[in-house]
Amino acid sequence: MRAGYQVGHVVLRDTVDHQQQWQDHLSQFRAARDAGFDSYCFGNHFLIDPFQHFQPWTVLARMAAEPGNMTLATSVLLLPLLNPVEVAEQAATLDHISVGRFVMGIGLGYRVEECEAFGIKMSERGGRITESMELIRRLWTEDEVTHHGKYYHVTGARPTARPYQRPGPKVWQAAMSDPAIRRVGRSGDILFVGPAQGNESIRKQIDLYRETLEKSGHEKPEDMVIVREFFCAGTHEEAIRKARGGFQTKYKVYRDQGLHGSDDELARKVTGNLETLMDETFVLGSPEECLEQIEEYKNMGFTDVILRLFYPQMTQGEALEHINLVGEEVIPGMHRL
After folding, report:
1. Rg for the chain (alpha carbons), in Å?
2. What are the pLDDT digits (tens) for 104-143?
3. For the chain, which domains are there?
């Protein structure tokens, strides 16, 4: 199995200077590379107060200049908020800068505030993400594109940036609800399972995804990706003790903002009982316990497990120590699975 490093975008406002935050990101990237992570995944949010947050295109382009061969992924890009022409050419540019190491992870987003800021309705997200990807793929592969859809229009457009990878980078598409799972299956994209579904729900959604792929005439992709909240320590008790404060702060923000989305049951779960969520969906414990949980994902068919290792109020020293522990005790076992 491949191990991904999900950047923790949960630096609380005014706790760290922005320049220091950037330097910390750079140090964490180098530590993750040296620890043996296979991919480095950078998210996308806007106006995400009380957290300080940078944007993925520029960050990943800078990281592509670092030594090493980690895959660089947007995990995930909030595609409904963005113009697909710009995304197509930004992605193509980054794919060349990284010499084909780029993966474009995409998702709907869930925050009303972001939709309002970009002038779209929450109800438009599904339609926009589908139409955007149709147009992006044409811009990656065709010499001239005319597209007049519900949301986007180009006439006789001749793309000015083509990806390094042909026909284009891999696309991970995030989904939490059954309608979103069906949308990913209809597209033929690689399924990217978010951090809040329990294993029973995941198994049902994998079945739904594969069923939809078949009905839509798509081959099953070789890859399938899951992201998990993760904390590893010497013992299970130590992991819980060290992780609890950061988890509580992060999920309090989710509750305060409201996890909006099409799956009301999931939203209640994420913003409800943290203890239940930790038991059902987080990877926590000693290295041996973490590997046992990760192996269960392998048995479900996942090829990549993306791990979040950084939480609010963690110091840089604690973050680097956590990365090093995972590199020494967990990643070698993942690579053997």
Report:
1. 19
2. 999 999 899 999 999 999 999 999 999 999 999 999 999 9
3. 2-336 (3.20.20.30)
